[in-house]
Amino acid sequence: MSNVGSSMDARKALRMPGWDSMSIDDWKKRENIDESKRIKLLRLSHMRYMHSDLSEISQFLLDFGMHVVHQTDDTIWWRGYGSEAYIYVCEKGPEKKYLGAAWDVEEASKLPGAGEIETLSDSPGGGFRVTLHDPEGFPINLVYGLKPAETRKLPEKLIYNFEQEKSREGAFQRFVDGAAAIHKLGHYGHCVVDIQKQIKFYTHNFNLVPSDFMYVPSPEAPNGRKEVGFFAHIDRGELYVDHHSFFMSSNPTGHVHHCSFEVHDFDTQLLGHKWLAKKGYKSVWGVGRHVLGSQIFDYWWDTTGFMIEHYTDGDVVNCKTPIGFGLAGAEGLAVWGPELPQDFLD
Question: The pTM is what?
Answer without folding.
Answer: 0.97
